[in-house]
Amino acid sequence: MTQEQARNYMNVQFAALSENESFARVVVGAFVSRLDPTLDELNDLKTVVSEAVTNCIIHGYDSDPSGIVYISAVIEGETVHLVIEDKGKGIDDLELAQQPLYTSKPELERSGMGFTIMENFMDEFEVVSEPGQGTSIRMKKTIVSKKALYN
């Protein structure tokens, strides 16, 4: 099996504290760095991680630090598969929650663009949620080889 065909994975979990959002960005960024992403690709990945982790903390756990945020990532060839999830309260109306500008927490001055940003920055995006059970955000992004960009 060549390095391009090799499958690599990681799993991490951490307390649902807002200060851990930057930790999550760094961990995922470091993990995908072996694919040599462009700066834009790396920023896109870090942004979606921030959005998803923030959603877990604020919406999934209502900022309760006893909650746990889970991230798993798999690299297959040039493709990164990300799953970011919580075991929190879940989403009652998933269709409504995915509408641009909708927020269930207007008092926190949330923009309601998290899901839209994630969907636009990734090649594939899916939200699975069960009220009372939690939410899982599943995303996929293929990293364009820098070698291909310069040839």
TrEMBL record:
<dbReference type="GO" id="GO:0004674">
    <property type="term" value="F:protein serine/threonine kinase activity"/>
</dbReference>
<keyword id="KW-0723">Serine/threonine-protein kinase</keyword>
<dbReference type="Pfam" id="PF13581">
    <property type="entry name" value="HATPase_c_2"/>
</dbReference>
<comment type="function">
    <text>Binds to sigma F and blocks its ability to form an RNA polymerase holoenzyme (E-sigma F). Phosphorylates SpoIIAA on a serine residue. This phosphorylation may enable SpoIIAA to act as an anti-anti-sigma factor that counteracts SpoIIAB and thus releases sigma F from inhibition.</text>
</comment>
<dbReference type="InterPro" id="IPR036890">
    <property type="entry name" value="HATPase_C_sf"/>
</dbReference>
<keyword id="KW-0418">Kinase</keyword>
<keyword id="KW-0808">Transferase</keyword>
<comment type="similarity">
    <text>Belongs to the anti-sigma-factor family.</text>
</comment>
<feature type="domain" description="Histidine kinase/HSP90-like ATPase">
    <location>
        <begin position="40"/>
        <end position="145"/>
    </location>
</feature>
<keyword id="KW-0067">ATP-binding</keyword>
<keyword id="KW-0749">Sporulation</keyword>
<dbReference type="InterPro" id="IPR003594">
    <property type="entry name" value="HATPase_dom"/>
</dbReference>
<dbReference type="InterPro" id="IPR050267">
    <property type="entry name" value="Anti-sigma-factor_SerPK"/>
</dbReference>
<protein>
    <recommendedName>
        <fullName>Anti-sigma F factor</fullName>
        <ecNumber>2.7.11.1</ecNumber>
    </recommendedName>
</protein>
<dbReference type="InterPro" id="IPR010194">
    <property type="entry name" value="Anti-sigma_F"/>
</dbReference>
<keyword id="KW-0547">Nucleotide-binding</keyword>
